[in-house]
# Entry
Amino acid sequence: MGAGGGDIEPFLAMAGVRVSACGPERAIVTQPATAELENHVAVRHASALNAAGYAAARALAGAAVAASGSDAELRLRHSEIAYKAMGLGELATVAEPADEGWEAAIEQLRGGEVVALRCVVITRNEQGQVVAELSVEWAAAPRG
# Structure
């Protein structure tokens, strides 16, 4: 993962995921409407929706760690998705810190502790309807 957290793994790029905004408070990825991402009933495949959510959460956590100045490794601890509506058209997925933010966790990380970074991730269609909701938790551990 690059310093800004916005690098995309090859699989995610194949899933059409593009980081459109990335910072320590919010990451946004988009995913176009293409036939390659549709399932047998012509809606977004569940795995494509999950890939977008993972990418947004990863970019957010990576950006927060980079902004903290910490040299840390991220490991996925938990991910849970709930599908709310059919994924049609271009989709935007937004990841933000869960709870009341990550300020305390980032300070602990700077102090050499392993911390949990929990994300809330929501995917919406072009009309603003929620398509999927994810909860994601990363472990951020100091390197070395």
